[in-house]
Amino acid sequence: MSVGENIKKRREAKGLSQAELAGAIGVGQSYLSQIERGTKTASIQLGKQIAEILECTLDELA
């Protein structure tokens, strides 16, 4: 499973919309969508923010 797929799976499991997660990490919903689809790569810093909100580690997203 790709990083983007893992983010989407964990986001949905927490009941968050793309817009909610995007707002929490300070990016646009379309950018988060691109990360989830694998067309954009998140920076390490952004990955850390996503992991914190989704209550997991970076390794668990990889």
UniProtKB/TrEMBL annotation:
CDD domains: HTH_XRE
Residues in HTH cro/C1-type domain copies: 7-61
InterPro entries per record: Cro/C1-type_HTH, Lambda_DNA-bd_dom_sf, TransReg_Diox_bact_type
GO cellular component assignments: cytosol
PROSITE patterns noted in UniProt: HTH_CROC1 (PS50943)
DNA-binding keyword on record: yes
Pfam family, one: HTH_3
Keywords for this protein: DNA-binding
GO molecular function, one term: DNA-binding transcription factor activity
Keyword hit for DNA-binding: yes
Protein name in UniProt: Helix-turn-helix transcriptional regulator
Organism: Eisenbergiella porci
